[in-house]
Amino acid sequence: MTIRVLLADDQALLRSAFKVLVDSEPDMEVVGEASDGAQAVRLAKAESADVVLMDIRMPGTDGLAATRMISDDPAMSHVRVVMLTTFEVDEYVVQSLRAGASGFLGKGAEPDELLGAIRIAAAGEALLSPTATKGLIARFLAQGDGGDEDSPARSERLDALTGREREVLVQVAGGHSNDEIAERLEVSPLTVKTHVNRAMAKLGARDRAQLVVIAYESGLVRPRGD
């Protein structure tokens, strides 16, 4: 199955470079290009994109607002957004995860990293740039908007999960794959996948990246002090 990719960046030269790279792969194709967020939302829907490479900073409707629009539209529940940023870890990155992005990648990433990111996002996996520090992301997420991460409102959302689903959620928040989680919990990868899917359904998460956000914001997982 061919992965349908939409490029959203206000720099035409960068879009052209990404297009050449993506179209060179047999399992993916560029189905549209957008120079601002509003256009990206329209094209993502019109072209049935699977993955949107979205620049955070664009004139008019920026990448964050566009990602929220895509995430909030039931008709685009299958669309995955990978945010492109000049800065590997900053407040915008965390906001993009909250907005519904599957992850982020620095614009200085190697071509193989970019292509891998598209495939990972298309598969519904959480993508965190290899050069990003999960501890920093965790601290930003835990800070939230000044609220208490231990408040009942944040923790009660996990009440619907079984004990095993909570265990799996902790592992997902640690960035572990299904195979790694299966080995750690001594169960089969298929069992892990089932627990992940059930947790996503119960918590209303679009993908694994959203599970990571929920795990930190609910206080289930604590940010590291590194």
Set down the secondary structure blueprint.
Blueprint (H helix, E strand, L loop, with lengths): L2 E6 L3 H12 L4 E7 L2 H10 L4 E5 L7 H10 L7 E6 L5 H9 L3 E4 L4 H12 L4 E2 L5 H10 L8 H4 L7 H11 L4 H8 L3 H15 L4 H10 L9
Parallel strand pairs: 1-2, 1-3, 3-4, 4-5, 5-6
Helix pairs in contact: 2-3, 3-4, 8-10, 8-11, 9-10, 10-11
GO molecular function: DNA binding
Protein name: LuxR family transcriptional regulator
Pfam family, one: GerE
Count up the domains. Answer: 2
CATH topology title of the largest domain = Rossmann fold
User: Tally of extended strands?
Assistant: 6
User: Which CATH architecture of the largest domain?
Assistant: 3-Layer(aba) Sandwich
Return residue spans where pLDDT drops below 50 for at least 5 consecutive residues. Answer: 145-153
The main β sheet shows up as: 6 strands, parallel
User: How many helical elements?
Assistant: 11
Order of helices and strands: EHEHEHEHEHEHHHHHH
CATH class of the largest domain: Alpha Beta
Q: Find the structural class using helix and strand composition.
A: alpha/beta
Give the percentage of residues in beta strands. 5-15%
Q: What is the residue-averaged pLDDT?
A: 83
Give the overall silhouette. Answer: globular
Spatial strand arrangement across the major sheet: 2-1-3-4-5-6
